[in-house]
Amino acid sequence: MDTTRLTIDGYLDTVPTLGAAPHTARFQLVVSPTEDLVDDVIWSCTTGDPRITHELLTDIQPGDLLRVTGILLQPSTPAEAARLTVDALQVLATAPARALQEMVLDRYGDYIVVFDADTDAVPVFTACGQWVGWAETPDTITTLIDVHERVTGSEA
After folding, report:
1. How confident is the model at residue 156 (pLDDT cuts 50, 70, 90)?
2. Is residue 149 within a helix (H) or strand (E), and if so which, with residue range?
3. What pLDDT does residue 102 have?
4. Would the pLDDT of 101 be above 70?
5. Are 63 and 53 in contact (CB under 8 A)?
6. Would you call 129 exposed, middle or buried from its count of C-beta atoms within 10 A (0-12, 13-18, 19+)?
7. Cβ atoms within 10 Å of 4's Cβ, excluding its own
8. Coil, strand or helix at 71
9. More confident residue, 73 or 6
């Protein structure tokens, strides 16, 4: 097999899993060389570095943008898949949904509200994602929804 040292940026596709050997992990990155989805490539990656394995299994989640560096093992036959053995990992950006871990989503009929323990204000959206507005407190959510329905002439 031929080997090449390589650095790529990609989004973690799925939750990393433990590898077959101790202190190893397997994961997949989605790499987008262009803006076109048909050009996306999924890279199969492994690591034997205990520090990287621990970070993958405890701190990183699908959707995080990662920069990985390692050795690309080219297959000796076309039937085998190429695999990137990672020896360096950097998180470039966390997935947007990570912020929702401290928040609670709730549904009011055709409306979605987001409760955040750090503030009384509550953002309100339609179930289709249209912005409705800020309710100053949780007690004013239904008033905001009623006003929205009167102004738009219909429910969400």
Report:
1. low
2. helix 141-152
3. 64
4. no
5. no
6. exposed
7. 11
8. strand
9. 6
